[in-house]
Amino acid sequence: MTIKDDLRINDLFKSFLILFLTAGFLAGISVNCIDEYVYYGVIPSRLYLYRPYQTTHGSVDITKGWYLDKGSVQNSSFIAIVASKENTHVKVYTLPEKRIVSEALLDFMESHFVQLPNGTIFKVVSDKPVTVLVFSGKNPEPDAFEGITPNTFYLDVDGSYVGRDFIFMASQGLAEQPYHIFSLEPAEVTVIRDDGTKQSFRLNANEHKALSLKAFRVYQIKSTGNIMIQSGGVGGRSFFIPSAEGGFVGRRFCSASRTSWDTITQYGFRISSLHDTNVKIWDLQYKRLIEELKVKAGETVSVKPKAADQAVIAVESDKPVTVEFIHDGDIMPLWSYGAGVSYVFIRPNEETPLYFPTNSTVEVYVFAYEDTLVQIDDLVLETKADSYIQVSLQGSHKISSDKNIIVEMIHWPLIPPVQGIQSFGVVAPPIQAVSKSTNIALTPIVTGQNLPLNALWIICVASFLIAAGFIFLRHRSRKG
Question: What number is the average pLDDT over the span 186-194?
Answer without folding.
Answer: 98
